[in-house]
């Protein structure tokens, strides 16, 4: 669904673009829609940020386009950098996502959710998704529940939640 009406970075609580995309999902049976910009490049999910793995690099649409800079997105990128995972932030086509080795979506509610299929093509999770998911789960446990010995203070990933 092309994003033509509202700037993605404006957290206006106007979810019309996402709602319209999710209405289209009822026909397809998919759980989430990938949003496209006016040029046909993937920007994000209707309610999430998109990541996929290609040739062992973590790929995500750059913030130069109409992409909401999600907190979970930032934390995942911080973990990837700490783990030495190459990161590609740029414009991607739907074919780039369909051809990915693994893919996942992020938002504050879902945290990291593996993408099983894109347009009926199996993608699924893999070692990078599993690693980042485990790191994120541990981070949430430390930060919000005091588990894992971290106690929530002094975390080096995603501390500035502005």
Automatic annotation (TrEMBL):
Gene3D superfamilies, alphabetized? D-amino Acid Aminotransferase, subunit A, domain 2
Q: SUPFAM superfamilies, per this entry?
A: D-aminoacid aminotransferase-like PLP-dependent enzymes (SSF56752)
Q: What keywords sit in the KW lines?
A: Lyase, Pyridoxal phosphate
Short name of any one Pfam family annotated for the protein: Aminotran_4
Required co-factor? pyridoxal 5'-phosphate
Q: Which GO terms describe its molecular function?
A: lyase activity
**Lyase as UniProt keyword:** yes
> Which PROSITE patterns does the annotation name?
AA_TRANSFER_CLASS_4
CDD domains named in the record: PLPDE_IV
- Could you provide one GO biological process annotation from this protein's UniProt record? amino acid biosynthetic process
Question: InterPro entries annotated for this entry?
Answer: Aminotrans_IV, Aminotrans_IV_CS, Aminotransferase-like, BCAT-like_C, Class-IV_PLP-Dep_Aminotrnsfr
UniProt entry tagged with the keyword Lyase: yes
According to its UniProt record, which protein family does this protein belong to?
Answer: Belongs to the class-IV pyridoxal-phosphate-dependent aminotransferase family.
What is the protein's name according to its record?
Aminodeoxychorismate lyase
Q: Which organism is it from?
A: Haloferax sulfurifontis ATCC BAA-897
